[in-house]
Amino acid sequence: MNSLNIEKALGGTARIKSDSTQLLKPKLNETQQNYRNAMSNLAAAVNIITTDGAAGKAGFTASAVCSVTDTPPTLLVCLNKNASVYQTFKNNKVLCVNTLALEHKELSNLFGGKTPMLERFAQGNWTTLTTGSPVLEDAILSFDCEVKAINTVGTHDIFICEVVDIRHKPESQSLVYFNRDYHQLSKVNH
Fold first, then answer.
1. Which pLDDT tens digit goes with each residue over 53-100?
2. Which end of the chain lies in a sparser environment, N or C, as judged by fewer CB atoms within 10 Å?
3. Residue 185: what pLDDT?
4. What are the φ/ψ torsions at residue 121 (nearest 5 degrees)?
């Protein structure tokens, strides 16, 4: 997977292939382009969001994940309504946020592109917790969630998710997406 696909998966500039040699950017107004450029400098954890249920098994790479409250433990996940996995997540109403470690760059790329679902889940070691959504065994964090509400804003839906189970491996190094590339965090000495 190339950086164009991961950039698109993580909310960067989408590109359309017109033939095998040329990529065209969609027409954006100045405000949209300035917004995208600014957002590329907002560092965020890289996550693989997964679901499994009556609508099927699916997963995608996302950085648009945020804590909402701890009473009850709730987070939000943003998903483009045009994404191929959208209906599966909407219909299953359960998901797991798997926060990736530094060694998961290739797995992030795999889930961020057009790779068929069976091939995505053939990589990595997966288990389940309470909801039955796939949990990446060596993820730094896994938040197993029930979707409690879905709100629409523009092209995306915001899934409000109550956390029903957590798996945490604090000894791992986090994978972060910043300035349209992967990075590793390091501790700042005072």
1. 999 999 999 999 999 999 999 999 999 999 999 999 999 999 999 999
2. C
3. 79
4. -80, -10
- Annotate the chain with three-state secondary structure: CCHHHHHHHCCCCCCEECCCCCEECCCCCHHHHHHHHHHCCCCEECEEEEECCCCCCEEEEECCEEEEEECCEEEEEEEECCCCCHHHHHHHCEEEEEECEHHHHHHHHHHCCCCCHHHHHHCCCEEECCCCCEEECCCCEEEEEEEEEEEEECCEEEEEEEEEEEEECCCCCEEEEECCEEEECCCCCC
21 has pLDDT over 70: no
97 near 47, Cβ under 8 Å?
A: yes
Angstrom CA distances, 180 to 35, 59, 63, 159, 187, stand at: 14, 21, 11, 24, 22
Tens digits of residue pLDDT in 178-190 = 888 889 877 777 7
